[in-house]
């Protein structure tokens, strides 16, 4: 068992492989289970802070695991036309529905003719 209740550094977790992360996750979960059993048995109140630390460590490991999985999937969809909705940029509903730069710059045939035939007049002012 680890019996290390100190905060796990996420930078250290990111260096580990997925197999190592699942192994550390299992050890933290076992550790948490043991602490909960001790708490039910009536151990000291100091165990509650240790339980909190171990729970947070479990959360950190799970976060790194999901981030790695999502980055792998992002790599698979890089350059593709369609991306799964959970990987797309969230933004706001209005921004997602806004016109793209290409759509904004397009002009109708009538507008093009108008601009060609009637350019903006420029006058030089005499001082």
Question: What does this protein look like?
Answer:
- The protein is mainly alpha-helical and 127 residues long.
- The protein starts with 9 loop residues before the first helix and ends in a 10-residue tail after the last helix.
- The radius of gyration is 29 Å and the shape is elongated.
- It has 6 helices and no strands.
- Helix 2 runs antiparallel to helix 3 (46-77).
- It has helices spanning 10-15, 18-41, 46-77, 93-97, 101-105, 109-117.
Keywords for this entry:
single chain, 127 residues, mainly alpha, 6 helices, elongated
Write the layout of secondary structure elements.
Blueprint: H1 10-15, H2 18-41, H3 46-77, H4 93-97, H5 101-105, H6 109-117
Helix pairs in contact: 2-3
Largest sheet: none
Give the strand tally: 0
Q: Which blocks of ≥5 consecutive residues have pLDDT under 50?
A: none
Q: Please, what is the average pLDDT?
A: 91
**What spatial form do the alpha-carbon principal axes imply?**
elongated
Radius of gyration over C-alpha positions, nearest whole angstrom: 29 Å
Order of helices and strands: HHHHHH
Structural class comes to mainly alpha
The gist of it:
It is built from 6 helices and no strands. It is mainly α and 127 residues long. The model has no long low-confidence stretch (mean pLDDT 91).
């Amino acid at each position: 068992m680890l019996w290390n209740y100190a905060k796990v550094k996420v930078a250290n977790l990111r260096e580990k492989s997925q197999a190592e992360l699942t192994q550390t996750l299992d050890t933290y979960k076992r550790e948490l289970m043991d602490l909960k059993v001790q708490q039910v048995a009536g151990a000291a109140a100091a165990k509650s802070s240790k339980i909190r630390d171990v729970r947070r460590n479990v959360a950190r490991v799970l976060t790194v695991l999901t981030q790695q999985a999502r980055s792998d999937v992002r790599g698979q969809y890089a350059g593709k036309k369609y991306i799964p909705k959970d990987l797309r940029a969230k933004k706001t509903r209005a921004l997602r529905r806004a016109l793209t730069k290409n759509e904004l710059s397009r002009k109708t045939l009538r507008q093009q003719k108008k601009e060609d035939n009637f350019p903006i007049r420029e006058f030089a002012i005499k001082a």
